[in-house]
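We treat protein structure as text, and this decision shapes the records that our systems exchange. Because each token names a local backbone shape, the row as a whole describes the fold. An entry from our holdings is shown next, in its original layout:
>
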Amino acid sequence: MTRSGSKARSQFRCSECSHVTAKWVGRCADCGTWGTVNEVAALSTIGGAGARRSVAPTSPAVPISSIDPGRTRHFPTGIGELDRVLGGGLVPGSVTLLAGDPGVGKSTLLLDVVHRWATSGRRALYLSGEESAGQIRLRAERIGCSHDEVYLAAESDLQTALGHIDAVQPSLVIVDSVQTMTSSETDGVTGGVTQVRAVTTALTAYAKGSTRPDGVAMILVGHVTKDGAIAGPRSLEHLVDVVLHFEGDRSSTLRLVRGVKNRFGGADEVGCFQLHDNGIEGVADPSGLFRDQRPAPVAGTAVTVTLDGKRPLIGEVQALVAKATTGIPRRATSGIDSSRSAMILAVLEKRAGFPLGSSDVYLSTVGGMKLNDPSADLAIAMAIASAAQDLPMPADAIAIGEVGLAGDIRRVTGMDRRLAEAARLGFKRAVVPAGVTGAPPGLRIKAVDDLGGALHAMRQIAHNGR
């Protein structure tokens, strides 16, 4: 019989799925992840005295109104698009995780950040575990980001990196990347789950525990998997304060910084950049990047306004309908979800009477934009109809709305911001779902109930502008 004062046995818990086992295993039996099972202390269920015992706090709880918020204010980085996503800038003591595909421009952006940080009179330290200091210097000179207050160190050992921070005393630290850092006090291979968690925990504790008056902000660069997820344990995103995704297509100069988590601001903002040979620059008004500039309207094009986070962006859809040269018609899309476009084609054929079953249909966006918002459904349908009828849409008309399987046009969120952006950019007419009222000055709206009414409105607009 077990005594009431017996010591509780240890347990082993998976950090990915929280599955608990009685002994250590290399692979979790529940989720199948390797290297995520760690020992945790199990609370004794006999007696229960240890679980209910209280400990005197080292510092008492205080009213929230008495806490000075000055230490948690934002310091602008000098890059407007990045500050927009961060909520105003970097906060001393915060840890930001920036993840993205290899070669997307993460190091180029962060070199610009440290250069502007140093230009404003503050010191920055760039720790690289992937490149030598000479390689970083060459890139900095190429993009014009060399400054005496930017310190470089090629280091992959965590303890030595912390020594560099103590010696330089910077207010901003860049760690490129967290997967290349190793801790001699922790077992595991470089970039493994155990090492990544230990390194991130140590860096976060250092940033939070800094006694410097102005604090120290850290930006950690993270690798991503082939699926686009941040490499390493899922708990990595919980340890840091801000998580940013750096996205971009190698065939395009457009780059997007998307906020995923932000403890100091909104997590649904997006920043737009253009990557050039001599650096990276923010695009304050990116709507022009997603439109095809031409002197006259062309059949098969339609313009919409999508919301990326809180930001309204103009997007152009291009469609081409041609007679199929083989027995099976082709359906090709670029920047548009193929299953969504297949649904819209089926609705056009069934509800609007367009015979598209024997035609090749090609759909694309302009500027490498990805239209995942359902509000682009109506523009996609009108672009296909315009191409099938060889009827150009006027350049000053937009279409916003979601297309249902019954052929109905549904309202979408943020309609006020979408219409305001269209009016700001000089659009004169808009085809929108029924029930939308209050158009901004200079923009006339045509409310429609179903896809047939939308196509009729398109013909009216194309013929006589009504």
Summary: The CA atoms of residues 27 and 455 lie 57 Å apart. DSSP finds eleven helices and 21 strands in the chain.
